[in-house]
Amino acid sequence: MQLILIGGGQRSGTTLLQTLLAHALGSPNLPEAHILSDILAAYKRAKQFGNKTSFFYPTHDSLQTFFRSFAERHVADITARSKPGTLVLKDPNFVLTLDETAVLFPGAIRIVCMRDPRDIAASFVQIGQRQNETKPSKYERRDILFISNKILASYQPLLAAVPPGIVIVRYEDLASDPKACLQALGRDTGLKLSLDGIEDAAWLDAPVRHQAAWISELEGAKPSPASIGSFKRMLLGEEVAIVQRVCQPIMSQFAYTPTDDVEPGRWGRIGRFFRLR
C-alpha cells in the first residue's frame, strides 16, 4: 500500500488537496489524521529528551522500533476494512515531523502545501469574523503578529532547505488549475491519477472537516481561485506589513513578492516595534 501524508500551514489547502487526491486515487477520504500526527510528534519529542528517554529505550534503534510498530499498527487499523491500494492522510502538523516520517515510513510520499502567508493570515482573520466566543480569540482580535509568527513556525522545517523527497504543492496552482497541478504532482511522485470529474470530488461532511468557524465558503464546492490575493481586501496595509516582515523568510524562499505600497511611516506603533528589534 502507498501512503501519502499531506502537511503544511493551517489554511494552506491541505483539506482541498486531500479531497482531490483521494478522488483521483480512489482512496477513502478521511478526517484529519490527528492520532498519527501525535505519534510522530511523540517520537520527535522522545528524541529531543534523550537523557530521559534512554531510561526506557537505551538505544535509538530500540526507540525507533517502538514508534515504528506503534505508527504501523495505527495505519493497519485504518486500512483493516477497505484495504485500499493508496491511503491519503492529512494533518497540517505533518510538516513539523518530516524527518520522523521519513524514518518510520520511508516509502511514504510526503507533500507540503504552500500558500502566500498574507492569504493565510487573511483566512485566520475570516475565522475570527465567524467566531462568536465569550472570550475573544486572537483571531477575533486580529492579532496579526501572533498569526504571522504561527505561520512562520509552521514552515520553519523548510526554511534552511526543503528536505530531500518533499513535494511542494502551491495552493495558488491547485485552486487555479487543479487538473494541471495534479498532473504535475503525478509526474513528481509517480502516482497514477484518474482526473476525470476531479472538480466534482466529494468532500467530507462539514462537521467532520472543521469546527463551524473554520469552514470557508469555498469548502464543499469546486476548486476556485477566489481567495487568491484575499489579503488585499481583508487586511489593512499595516497588517500586510507585519505579515511581510515576520514571514519574510517564507516569502523570499518560495517567491511570494511583497507589496511595496505600505509606507513605513504609516505603521504607527507597529513600525516602532520593528525598528526597536
CATH architecture annotation: 3-Layer(aba) Sandwich
**Uncertain runs with pLDDT below 50, 5 residues or more?**
263-270, 272-277
CATH superfamily: P-loop containing nucleotide triphosphate hydrolases
Major sheet: size, sense and barrel closure? 4 strands, parallel
Count of helices?
Answer: 15
Structure commentary:
The protein has a single domain, classed as 3-Layer(aba) Sandwich (Rossmann fold). The protein contains 15 helices and four strands. It has a four-stranded parallel beta sheet, with helices on both faces. The chain has helices at residues 14-25, 34-48, 50-53, 60-79, 98-104, 117-130, 144-154, 156-159, 171-176, 178-189, 206-209, 231-234, 237-246, 248-253, 269-276; strands at residues 2-8, 86-90, 109-114, 166-170. The longest helix is centred in the N-terminal third of the chain and has 20 residues, at 60-79.
